[in-house]
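Two records follow; treat each independently.
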Amino acid sequence: MATDLDGTLLTSTGTITPRTTNALRRAREAGAEIVFVTARPPRTARTIAGLAGVTGTVICSNGAIVYDLATDEIIRSLPLEPAAARKVATLLAAALPGIGLAAETGRNVLTEPAYTRRVTHDLAYHREVSSVFEAGEPIVKLLVLSKTHTADEMYTAAVAAIEGQAEVTHSGVTGVLEISAPGVTKAGALDWLCQERGIAPEEVVAFGDMPNDVAVLAFAGRGYAMANAHHLVLAATEHRTLSNDEDGVAAVLERLYG
């Protein structure tokens, strides 16, 4: 079973309910492997896994990282090449004037002065730099902030500007775009993990709510869009469940596992 976190497994307040925790436990006891497939970095995905009682492997940073919870190790990392990251940033600055940049490294976040967004529970891992490209750390995900555009508007402009030189998506955060290396997606990482496990796509049940989840839901034998999902997700996905605030993931797991 593969599930996104924010807007999917977690409520709108960022918590996991007892009902969902119990449904995950039943699924594990029935033999299901539960894999978080998230835009979050390992450090915050690990916290949620502890609350949910989930062990094993997590797909993080939109597929750029595969992380082992037991060993606290990144077992697969697909960062942006430095030259490619610089080129993409130049193209984005021309298409979306006034943007700010940050970079997720897998262990922390590098933030340039113009990137003013901060996540309260992750403040200890933010490090201010003059340039994310001169810090000498890998960029597993380039974060782009605009104070004047929505994420959907940014996505349209970025796709046209980048022309396939990087993977562009967003996870619903206002004014924030997420850039990965070409071909790096949540679905690609899940496919890799399934091949490692000898699991066929049709055996996978998946849940998601944002554009970065569309390919995951298409890959899975049964992919469920949350009732609160982005309109692109709803348009692309046949199966539905209740919203994240109505324990939509748990509702499906209870039908599958009792």
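The next record belongs to a different protein.
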Amino acid sequence: MSTQNSGPDVPVRRLDRILAFTALTLAALSVICFFAIIIGSASGMTQKSFSDGIWPLVIAIPPYGLPLAFAMIIALLVMSFVRKGRAAKRS
């Protein structure tokens, strides 16, 4: 088994870390809100109950948060591939 890296060693930029942690946080928050909606529905909350308090925000996060987190992960992958490709050309 070889211990050498298959590609060039490219440092991780601050933007990559921010994008990764933001996508992870947004996806986790979306899943938590999704389960909160399921638990609220199962406990007998009515449609009127979901329109009061913080519930409109909880209901709005999953449909927008999950696709946005997915797009951020795709952008992170593209940026990583481009950066590694440029580093490979320099080597």
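Discussion point: Helices lie at 14-42, 47-50, 55-90. How would you locate this feature using only the token line?
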